Amino acid sequence: MKLCVMGLGYIGLPTAVMFAKYGVEVLGVDVNEAVIKKLKNRELHIEEPGLEELMAEVMDTGLLKLSTEPEHANAFIIAVPTPINRDKTANLDYVKGATEMITPFVQSGNLIILESTVPPKTVENVMIPILEKSGLAIGKDLFISHSPERVMPGNLFEELVSNDRIVGGINERSSQMTVELYKRFVKGTIHVTDSTTAEMVKLMENTYRDINIAFANELARIAETVGFNVWEAIDLANCHPRVNIHKPGPGVGGHCIAVDPWFIIEQAPMESKLISLSRDINETTPHHVSGQVEELVKDKDQPVVTLLGLAFKGNIDDMRESPSLEIIDNLSKKELQLKIFDPHVVEEMDGKVATIEEAVTGSDCVVILTDHHKFKTLDYQKIKELMRTPVIYDTRNLLNEEELKDYGYIYNPIGAPMKRTRYV
């Protein structure tokens, strides 16, 4: 059994490694020569616990090989990015490109699986017309499925195995072949449907979360106006057995939740009014956060603001669609000195510093944008001594207010009326 995985990013690389771990001969393909060169040197271009060690192990056994070009294989998995264009429509160039790359190599009996998250009808209207150029009969000689990834960066290997899997084949044989392939390591239930339904399921899952987060972010703004603790209120509401309100934050990021709802809106704009409104709430939240930060330092002469966190979620290096980037962009246009720190992100940018001490020295406000574990365990008593003004704005409700109060901080969690005076 030989498998060719197209795209070696946050999903494709761990997927290729996992199949190799379970005895499949895998060719991992990425068009980025720098990525392939780095991986061949046993160096990662992404952060995922356990990935570096497991990748080296399967490369040493010869089960994982790497290339910029595909080869003949029994099965192909396409796991490439599907970003959004400026007009909020899906950019399927990577999917089209990967499909075109494998078309000269497909043979009768091959299976092609799309894992990338896509708008409904992508398999039917985009992939199949390209694969028909192979001359093989679709559904008879060439079998095609959509099986969307459903994993969380930072816990990816656990979820690849334990999470339920959706398989949507263009016919029964396509689905059967896909199930047999994933059963090599998937212990969760594998649910079979058609390709268009599978495409919609992934979009629905992330759109549900986007709508729920929008509700939480709206509640946070209401709490700031009315005057109540939104975090406590959400926890209490969630004591109800049929209520599960998500948490507010600085906005929505990542490769799924901030993007996938637009794929539904694109296909049915008049029918997706709730989805559109939720996207508007979440997309304007970084602007709201920026305004709150400006308000906190407006009385300072040449204010210095420390921004903690670039990744869209805690304990990873993934900055895709991160609200932190928009907040930084907004604040950089103001008369503020920004100092940025993220222990997981190695990418350089203006204002980014190497240590927490450098980040907080002379600061008038520390803004927590990402819930990295390291930010929760910092020595805030020491940090206060380095700051010019001991103000913290916490968009993740990460810290303990009573502890910070004892240190003399002015602590402002998102969703609370703003405090501009010291605790007494």
The CATH homologous superfamily name of the largest domain equals: NAD(P)-binding Rossmann-like Domain
Share of residues in strands: 5-15%
Q: Pairing-aware structural class of the strands and helices? A: alpha/beta
- Residue runs with pLDDT of under 50 for 5 or more positions: none
CATH topology group of the largest domain: Rossmann fold
Task: Enumerate the strands of the largest sheet in spatial order, edge to edge or round the barrel.
Answer: 3-2-1-4-5-6-7-8
- Count of spatially separate domains: 3
Mean pLDDT: 95
Number of helices: 16
CATH class of the largest domain: Alpha Beta
Mind explaining what this structure looks like?
By secondary structure, the chain is of the alpha/beta class. The protein has helices at residues 12-21, 33-40, 51-60, 93-102, 122-131, 156-162, 172-182, 195-226, 230-237, 260-267, 273-297, 323-332, 356-360, 373-376, 380-386, 401-407, and strands spanning 2-6, 25-29, 64-67, 75-78, 111-114, 143-146, 165-169, 190-194, 304-308, 337-341, 365-368, 391-394, 410-413. The strands form 2 sheets. The chain has an 8-stranded mixed beta sheet with strand order 3-2-1-4-5-6-7-8, sandwiched between helices. A 5-stranded parallel beta sheet has the order 10-9-11-12-13, with helices on both faces. Helix 4 links the parallel strand 4 and strand 5. Helix 4 (93-102) packs parallel to helix 5, helix 8 crosses helix 10 (260-267) and helix 10 (260-267) packs across helix 11. The longest helix is centred in the middle third of the chain and has 32 residues, at 195-226. The N and C termini lie far apart (70 Å).
